[in-house]
Design brief:
Blueprint (H helix, E strand, L loop, with lengths): L1 H8 L5 H23 L8 H8 L6 H24 L5 H22 L6 H26 L3
């Protein structure tokens, strides 16, 4: 309902704009899902985690926590991929919001900490993904269905 009111206020959406917005949302979902699935390689062991984050994971408890993080990020990634096929808008909007929370929380927690090169790269990726997700969520919410 709200999107139709906004569309009328803006003078309406044409088919090309709606297709473009759909494409941007789909691309954001797929791109973000890929980046959330990459840490799943950490489930294979400490060497993969060390390569991703530039830290030593030889102790079993930090390794356990990072492997658990890999599972959680993979679940977010799979949810994003599944939402690309969702026919109902709220599913995609929830997936986009969940991914924004996942990326934004790391950035918020990492601000002001001394990060190594690998974690700085992760932070830059998460900031970029957060912006992409915010644009996609706005397009998804305000494009008529």
């Amino acid at each position: 309902m709200t999107s139709k009111v906004i569309a009328r206020a803006w003078g309406g959406f044409d088919t090309v704009s709606m297709r473009f917005n759909h494409w941007v949302v789909q691309a954001a979902l797929v791109i973000t899902s890929v980046f959330h699935l990459l840490p799943a390689a950490g489930l294979l062991g400490s060497q993969q985690l060390s390569r991703l984050y530039g830290l030593d994971f030889t102790e079993p408890l930090p390794l356990l926590l990072m492997r658990h993080r890999a599972v959680l990020l993979a679940l977010v990634g799979l949810g994003l991929l599944a939402s690309t096929r969702a026919a109902q808008a709220p599913v995609q909007e929830l997936a986009l919001a969940a991914a924004m929370l996942a990326t934004g929380s790391f950035v918020a927690l990492a601000i002001g900490l001394p990060l190594n090169a690998a974690l700085t790269r992760v932070m830059c990726i998460d900031v970029t993904l957060f912006v992409l997700l915010a644009v996609a969520l706005a397009l998804r919410m305000f494009t008529p269905r």
